[in-house]
Amino acid sequence: MTDTPIRVLIAKPGLDGHDRGAKVLARGLRDEGFEVIYTGLRQTPEMIADAAEQEDVDVVGLSILSGAHMALLPRTVQLLRERGMDDVLVAAGGIIPDADIAKLKDAGVAEIFGPGTSIGHIASYFREHARREA
Amino acid sequence: MNAVDELASGERRPLARLLTRIESGDPELRALLPELFAAGRGGHVVGITGPPGSGKSTLVNALTGEWRRRGRRVGILAVDPSSPYTRGAILGDRIRMMEHAADRDVFMRSMASRGELGGLAATTWIAAAALDAAGYDPVVIETVGAGQSEVEIARLAETTVVVEVPEMGDEVQAIKAGLLEVADIIAVNKGDRPGADRAARQLRAMLSTAGGRIERAPPPVLVTTATTDEGVATLADAIDAHRTAARSPIEARERAASQVRRALADLAARRATAAPAWDETLRAVADRELDPLTAAERLLDGW
Ligand code: B12
Ligand SMILES: Nc1nc2c(ncn2[C@@H]2O[C@H](COP(=O)(O)OP(=O)(O)OP(=O)(O)O)[C@@H](O)[C@H]2O)c(=O)[nH]1
Ligand SMILES: [Mg+2]
After folding, report:
1. Could you report the predicted ipTM of this complex, rounded to two decimals?
2. pTM given for the model
3. Nearest CA to ligand 1 atom 16
4. Which of A37, A39, A65, A72 to mutate to test the pocket of ligand 1 (most atoms within 8 A of CB)?
5. For B53-72, what is each residue's pLDDT tens digit?
6. Which ligand is nearest to the CA of B119?
7. DSSP state of B73
8. How far apart are alpha carbons A22 and B63 in whole angstroms?
9. Of A26, A75, A83, A74, nearest to A50 (Cα)?
10. What is residue A1's predicted lDDT score, i.e. its pLDDT?
11. B24 vs A contacts (CB less than 8 Å)
12. Are B60 and B78 in contact (CB under 8 A)?
């Protein structure tokens, strides 16, 4: 069953309308063979966690350029864990200052990808770290 | 407790996990299939199909709001196409349905077609049975944006809604086959655009004279605007009303025949390709020593 495509949810928590990166990522990952569920703009952590639970994705990818990442990303991770999604890989990208990265990792965000990251690099990271069905 | 028993709790997580196993073709589930079907609670299986971009997802979202107001628990499967080259997919139907994401009585799952033609994934019928066993009613299935040949949904759904747009009016006379033929209800969506009523009239006129399902009344043609809920309650009424007709012995039997025929074809193909004589048979057909029908007969008889 490991040959079934990896399922990724791409979500934009918070209120910013910067969706170019999320869309580039969604298309790029599709071209890399992933199944990408894109939930669109302006999602609350609750909506994202609920969607991830129903979709039973292997990866939750959060794109955020608004500066509100310290409020929204740990909360999303917490809600995912509360729903029993302990093994889902949570990754983030967008505009996130280096100073915040360690704190976000402590909160359960596995990795953070800033501007200019190649899709190929992100795809390899997901392939390596995504939870897969046994 | 096995995976089917767990569905009775109505919780989302066991259902979501089971759907993943169904999609990936987990061989252990084969043995659970009879139990899964026996656990069905008779939820109304409703198909939503129609051309790309006609508003299927937006309409499912609006219908879900209406059904929730009526106290129903709504299960949704939305299928989008996989790329034949990379096997990847963008599953975008959920964007239009996020307002229901946190509603505990709505379960929505995106599925990639994973190489299957016909508008559904090969496992969508099993996924629908899982939603039914989990107590969702209706179980709504949105197909891939369909052309004229993606009519697999009619096999599975008790009620098939074909979603068209006003602009189709100009082509009504040309569209006689395919999608419209499997429609139990037609929604001319984007009713806020010019020509919707005219398109609906043309469709009605065409369907009342078209041959085909002679013994059946022509499907109702309704105008909807999914973005404003206009006409959506009427559409929900029409879908609910069709449930009784869909469950008449004749209709139920016809659907069963279609489903078993499909399963039979799949099974025969799977067994034949696994048969030891498969390679040799292919060679013989390729070298024109054997015609395809005789080849198939031999493969079947060889089991
Ligand atoms: C284009 C842009 C806009 C466009 C957005 C168009 C759109 N639909 O996306 C417009 C003009 C609308 C816009 C508006 C605004 N913007 Co602006 N915008 C930018 C800009 C110049 C580029 C962003 C972009 O599209 N990059 C291209 C994409 C492909 O890259 P990306 O998003 O970074 O994504 C890559 C990686 O980050 C990563 N990635 C991203 N997400 C994810 C997720 C996962 C899971 C993974 C693995 C990887 C990943 O992968 C991608 C590929 O490498 C940035 C500056 C910058 N250099 O980033 C400012 C910037 C983001 N904007 C900013 C601001 C302040 C605004 C406004 C508030 C300005 C204003 N005062 O009006 C408004 C707000 C609009 C709104 N509604 O939210 C600030 C944000 C500051 C902050 N966070 O503290 C920035 C950083 C500019 C700055 N230096 O001040 N903006
Ligand atoms: N004006 C108008 N636009 C609508 C209506 N319903 C849907 N739309 C818009 O039509 C576009 C496509 O809607 P979707 O619901 O994604 O269509 P779809 O049929 O699900 O599309 P696919 O799944 O990609 O085939 C979106 O921009 C919707 O906002 C409507 O009643 N009126
Ligand atoms: Mg859709």
Report:
1. 0.94
2. 0.94
3. A18
4. A65
5. 999 999 999 999 999 999 99
6. 2
7. B
8. 28
9. A83
10. 44
11. 1, 4, 133
12. yes
